[in-house]
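Appendix B: a complete holo record

For completeness, this appendix reproduces one full record from the ligand-bound portion of the collection. The bound molecule is zinc ion. The inputs are the chain sequence and the ligand SMILES; the output is the full three-dimensional arrangement of the complex, encoded as structure tokens. No fields have been trimmed.
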Amino acid sequence: MISRCSGILFSVFLALPLAAQEPEFRANTARPDSTIFSPLKLPPANSMRTGAGRPGPDYWQQQVDYKIEASLDPETRIVHGKAHVTYTNASPDDLDYIWLSLEQNAFREDSIAARIGGATAIGMSNAEGDGYTLHALEAHGKDLDYSVYDTMARVMTPKPIKANGGTFEFDIEWDFTIPLKVFRRFGIADFDDGKVYEVAQWFPAVAVYDDIHGWNTLPYLGTGEFYSNFGTYDVEITVPRSMILVATGELQNEKKVFTSEQVNRLKQARKSDETVIIHGADEIGQEGSRPEGEGPLTWKFHAEQVRTFAWACSDIFILDAASSGDILIQSAYPEDGLPVWGKSTQMLKTAIEGYSSRWFPYPYPAATNVFGAEGGMEYPMIIFCRGSSEQGVYGVTTHEIGHNWFPMLINTDERRYAWMDEGFNTFINGYSTEEWFGPQKRSENDPAAFGAFMLMPDQMPIDTPADMLGGNLLGILEYMKTGVGLTLLRESILGHERFDFAFRTYINEWAFKSPQPADFFRCMEDAAGMDLAWFWRGWFLETGYLDQAVSGVSQPNGKRGARVRFDNLGGLVMPLHFQVEYEDGTTEDFEYPVQVWYQNDRIIEMLPGQRNIFRVTIDQHKKFPEAKRSNNTWTETDE
Ligand SMILES: [Zn+2]
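The structure of the chain with zinc ion bound, as generated:
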């Protein structure tokens, strides 16, 4: 096939067998039975997860609904909570017990996370919390038997929770003290004029029971984030009257917690593309800036189809807001954040609108960005970010809100498969950055720039649980390599239209559900119409690197044209793109599909024509993650 594109001639030829009289041009022996191109050994498809990578007719997942009343005492740092939890068992199995996730226990000095903290980079080496104190755990007024093991607790149910829709309701009351030093994800920030409280992983939550592992009971060690159930949350939080509070969900009682002037500003913000100040810097600590009355105020929120709930409060918050359609977009930050944080709401709006139009509409009615202790962490409808430069604040904001697609909408198991949230998110972040700053010289997901990382010693497969990755491997594999991989797939392997159709199909099929890696691989192949076993295996499951080499050119002065020998040396395969420069000054670009490597790692290409070749360059446009570019070029003087 030959087509003309931007004045460059692209030609595709089949690999030709070799002439017997040129032994150095003989191909290697054929590949063994099992190669990088062999079908992946995926779990068998069934009526729950189909061969096309979709949820099947019998797909089920559990639902957990929470009604919570909570309070924060800033003096003691104690968060107190009471929850009524309704667990709905959609599985085909009767359940005799449930598992609770008690993430605050990771901060106890005897936790697994704390005890491995000194020896590894992943644990909570600076843990200094007390964990949860459970005051009550009961169903219909009767105490439940339970056993706590580190960050998990097994709770016996009085009778089995029936399969196919049985429910179990229980009440739990707890408290914990927010640690002063927190490893990550929440905590207290000290600013010049006061404190900001970010509260997350703050209530006992029912763990996930699924078709793959049954109960998911991996402990919380600090790096691997979460895997949780969708549910409806009605949460009431009581804090001092001086504070502004933001949270997952929609505020239900704004007239009680804002002044009438602030309620009017909120009304205006709901119709405004421009940012409207709701609680300004000049109102902080001023009389009349909070509703009249004595004592604390209770803020009420409602959220549906969210996988957890987080909140933040402060008496030094500036609060501003704008809207994007029906979505209320807000930022809460102390004056220290100015001037850059004054742009946060517009940054959040740009990011949300970009992801919504490219991939899937933002699924929630609100989004809030908070500047506090945490450097960057995502929760449904609320993100915790830190930064003072425009580059820094946009970068972290678009990343954390991007997590509202992966894994808030596509609910993956973050402890086992961090790449399905961090990496997919890093991929979509690359395009978002251009939407705020304009076209960038080099994308953060540039495959060519990544090539050298693949030669690092002690490589691990991307598909390794986050807590098992030491050093920089978490960032390099779960964020960068995965983001680069999807970029490569979109830009250089499938093309935009074919990739976007497949990736949107994956998102649509799995919105508000929980795919496994095999579901992703299958769905992408099915919708893109391409066998990608070589790509999934090479990029996600193995540790080979890309090293294509041009290892010889034979151009007898005759009519037969030239033969060019290419070797694939690194274990990973990719399409072969190269440019030929002829002695007469003309050039020609050639693009061979990945199947060119089907039979072996050495191929000989027969180029037609009478022109003498001066130079051959592999990956001349630097689209691929070449690890060793020194052997990518052959010039006539070489031989
Ligand atoms: Zn992230």
